[in-house]
């Protein structure tokens, strides 16, 4: 059983909602990646979505864009990241999925990337600009070979047959984008609730995590009534602000997660 | 035998193209994929499009035998005068097509990106004509260097929003426009200004611009008795004027297709936009193409004196023409383009856009066999570039 499956099994038994927190590799400082991840795990994150910074992050709002720009300035690259992650499983046990965009992964070499990710102990991938057709034709077998989960996004505008297709192609979990938007936008949560309760009506094979615009306990509780958990991104990046050093990062992470859990 | 150059059902030219977009864009892009051809072929659409191209834009644009330029180069050179179109460039052909299409899709709000401002002006113009809300994203750097076009867009009633991320030029304006579309999924159509973006944009924009080569064929026949030129030359930013100029010659193997990219301060100066020379296969703005990027896959910030060519990618059609050898790719530096612009101005009394000046500079780089019939796309006029030209005036006295 994969780390992600175990997590959802366990939380279902405990009737607990999964908290997935997004952080940007190499932010706030080049070498803070592991400090941030450790702080997240020890303060209650069940799953970590580790963002690989990219020069042109189309799906991201200003906060995450900014953190990516800082990380790139700091010198973060995929090779540097894999170096940082070499022994991370000695410290961190929650599942970790890498989130990024196709271009840097293609440039690294898709298979090479998957091989490295699996080697260091990464559990899955989110590449929002990899479409299902190309996924099936060129990439799904590579992901299987390295037993990496691949997570697709669905939105309130995604048609029923496509939701079923994206669920079938996904493993680990399905990422429900709360409303059609870039990351970090404020939401009309009554609309979000309608959409999420509609999603509940599908016979999905994967657990569902809702993301985009979840920022505090209220929005977490409200949306996870209909899902297996939620993903917090921009709000945490904002809370990390320009913190420097392990202690400051840990404190900021702790006080942020205290307001969510 | 050469392979036929055409797009396949999944939106690929050879290995380039596709629709690499986040799911949030899927419904809009899928709707376009499903409907663009049937809308474009609908008689009422055609009628309105043709009417506007004729009476509003002023088409057909002349095919002009530039006699003094021909004498200088030593071969027959025809200029396809897209600079004489209403709003001053080829961009209006596509803007009209897409806005008419957007209306038929029931969209009320139009967004666009712009580099030189020509596409922004063209889109703002058609929106004014049709009474539609228009928002144009433009890099902060470009807002400064193409001030006359910013003023025109504002007078036309468009809202110009500065793109402040990255290099603050065309690439970043495109990112911002795509993000706007993600955040406004139902009422908005994104009028992309070149043959870039996810399928079906590259094909759709090429079709709207294909009027350029459609006219060249019959105009050349009328003037020379030959329908086919020996060479067609166009500048390439994203590649829409080149796509329009090449379109009806793509599968005519005797016609040499020549694309001229912007080499900025020199191809290997670190300040260039010569994508085919410097780029590698990658994904940018929703399609797989050739992209200027670091070994780590970060898109690099290009440089060109011409805002319309200051882009680190090219459309997938052009990537395919390059990779298959069907197209010949040249480049012109900032200085070479300036020289070509002053040369044309003094020989023919035509001030070209800086973008088009790159195409003109290509003339000096090709050995034309005797009896060549060369057609150059003069994609736009130079009014918007007068500040830049004035700065360099002394060099050409
Ligand atoms: C006059 C003119 N020519 C050429 C271009 C480059 O675009 P494309 O390569 O799509 O024709 C522009 C873009 O702004 C332009 O204004």
From TrEMBL, chain A:
GO-annotated cellular components: cytosol
Active-site residues (renumbered): 49 (proton acceptor), 60 (proton acceptor)
Keywords, in A-Z order: Amino-acid biosynthesis, Aromatic amino acid biosynthesis, Lyase, Tryptophan biosynthesis
GO molecular function: tryptophan synthase activity
Xref: InterPro entries: Aldolase_TIM, RibuloseP-bd_barrel, Trp_synthase_alpha_AS, Trp_synthase_suA
Leading EC class: lyase
Gene3D superfamilies linked: Aldolase class I
Catalytic reactions on record: (1S,2R)-1-C-(indol-3-yl)glycerol 3-phosphate + L-serine = D-glyceraldehyde 3-phosphate + L-tryptophan + H2O
Keyword Ribosomal protein included in the entry's annotation: no
Pathway: Amino-acid biosynthesis; L-tryptophan biosynthesis; L-tryptophan from chorismate: step 5/5
Assembly: Tetramer of two alpha and two beta chains.
Record function comment: The alpha subunit is responsible for the aldol cleavage of indoleglycerol phosphate to indole and glyceraldehyde 3-phosphate.
NCBIfam families in the cross-refs: trpA
Family: Belongs to the TrpA family.
Protein name: Tryptophan synthase alpha chain
Gene of this entry: trpA
UniProtKB/TrEMBL annotation, chain B:
N6-(pyridoxal phosphate)lysine carried by residues: 91
GO cellular component: cytoplasm
Domain Tryptophan synthase beta chain-like PALP, chain residue ranges per copy: 58-380
Record keywords: Amino-acid biosynthesis, Aromatic amino acid biosynthesis, Lyase, Pyridoxal phosphate, Tryptophan biosynthesis
Cofactor(s) needed: pyridoxal 5'-phosphate
Annotated signal peptide: none
InterPro entries reported for this sequence: Trp_synth_b_CS (IPR006653), Trp_synth_beta (IPR006654), Trp_synth_beta/beta-like (IPR023026), TrpB-like_PALP (IPR001926), TrpB-like_PALP_sf (IPR036052)
PANTHER family in alphabetical order: TRYPTOPHAN SYNTHASE (PTHR48077:SF3), TRYPTOPHAN SYNTHASE-RELATED (PTHR48077)
Function as written in the Swiss-Prot or TrEMBL entry: The beta subunit is responsible for the synthesis of L-tryptophan from indole and L-serine.
Family: Belongs to the TrpB family.
Designated name of the protein: Tryptophan synthase beta chain
Record organism: Arachidicoccus rhizosphaerae
Gene name as annotated: trpB
């Amino acid at each position: 059983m994969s780390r992600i499956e175990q997590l959802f099994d366990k939380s279902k038994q405990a009737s607990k909602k999964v908290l997935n927190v997004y952080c940007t590799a190499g932010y706030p400082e080049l070498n803070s990646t592991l400090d941030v991840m450790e702080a997240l795990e020890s303060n209650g994150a069940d799953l970590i979505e580790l963002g690989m910074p990219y020069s042109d992050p189309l799906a991201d709002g200003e906060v995450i864009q900014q953190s990516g720009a800082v990380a790139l300035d700091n010198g973060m690259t995929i090779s540097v990241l894999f170096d940082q992650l070499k022994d991370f499983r000695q410290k961190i046990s929650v599942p970790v999925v890498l989130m990024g965009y196709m271009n840097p992964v293609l440039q690294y070499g898709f298979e090479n990337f998957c091989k490295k990710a699996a080697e260091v102990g990464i559990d899955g991938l989110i590449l929002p600009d990899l479409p299902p057709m190309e996924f099936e034709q060129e990439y799904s077998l590579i992901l299987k070979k390295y037993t990496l989960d691949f997570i697709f996004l669905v939105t309130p505008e995604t048609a029923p047959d496509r939701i079923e297709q994206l669920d079938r192609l996904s493993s680990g979990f399905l990422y429900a984008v709360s409303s059609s938007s870039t990351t970090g936008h404020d939401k009309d949560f009554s609309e979000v609730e309608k959409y999420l309760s509609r999603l509940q009506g599908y016979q999905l094979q994967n657990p569902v995590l809702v993301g985009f615009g979840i920022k505090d306990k209220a929005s977490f509780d409200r949306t996870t009534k209909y899902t297996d958990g939620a993903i917090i991104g921009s709000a945490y990046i904002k809370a990390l602000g320009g913190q420097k050093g392990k202690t400051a990062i840990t404190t900021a992470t702790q006080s942020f997660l205290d307001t969510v859990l | 035998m050469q392979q036929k150059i055409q797009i396949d059902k999944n939106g690929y030219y050879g290995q380039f193209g596709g629709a690499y977009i986040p799911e949030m864009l899927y419904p809009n892009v899928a709707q376009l994929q499903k409907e663009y051809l049937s809308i474009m072929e609908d008689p009422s659409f055609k009628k309105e499009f043709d009417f506007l191209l004729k009476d509003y834009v002023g088409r057909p644009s002349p095919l002009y035998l530039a006699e003094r330029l021909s004498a200088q180069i030593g071969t027959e050179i025809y200029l396809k005068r897209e600079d004489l179109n209403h709003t001053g460039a080829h961009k209006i052909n596509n803007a009209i097509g897409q806005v008419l299409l957007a209306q038929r899709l029931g969209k009320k709000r139009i967004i666009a990106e712009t580099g030189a401002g020509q596409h922004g002006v063209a889109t703002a113009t058609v929106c004014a004509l049709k009474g539609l809300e228009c928002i144009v994203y433009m890099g902060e750097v470009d807002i400064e260097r193409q001030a006359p076009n910013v003023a025109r867009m504002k007078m036309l009633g468009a809202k110009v929003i500065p793109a402040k991320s990255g290099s603050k030029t065309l690439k970043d304006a495109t990112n911002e426009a795509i993000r706007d579309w993600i955040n406004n999924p139902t009422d908005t159509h994104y009028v992309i200004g070149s043959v870039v973006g996810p399928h079906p944009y590259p094909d759709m924009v090429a079709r709207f611009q294909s009027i350029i080569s459609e006219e060249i064929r019959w105009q050349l026949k009328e003037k020379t008795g030959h329908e086919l030129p020996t060479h067609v030359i166009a500048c390439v930013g994203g590649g829409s004027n080149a796509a329009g100029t090449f379109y009806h010659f793509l599968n005519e193997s005797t016609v040499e297709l020549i694309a001229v990219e912007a080499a900025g301060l020199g191809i290997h100066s670190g300040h260039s936009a010569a994508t085919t020379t410097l780029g590698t296969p990658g994904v940018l703005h929703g399609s797989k193409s050739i992209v200027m990027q670091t070994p780590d896959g970060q898109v690099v910030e290009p440089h060109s004196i011409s805002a319309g060519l200051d882009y680190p990618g090219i459309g997938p059609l052009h990537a395919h023409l390059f990779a298959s050898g069907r197209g010949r790719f040249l480049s012109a530096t900032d200085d070479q383009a300036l020289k070509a612009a002053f040369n044309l101005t003094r020989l023919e009394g035509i001030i070209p856009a800086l973008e088009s000046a790159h195409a003109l500079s290509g003339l000096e780089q090709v050995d034309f066999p005797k009896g060549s019939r060369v057609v150059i796309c003069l994609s736009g006029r130079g009014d918007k570039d007068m500040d830049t030209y004035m700065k360099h005036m002394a060099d050409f006295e």
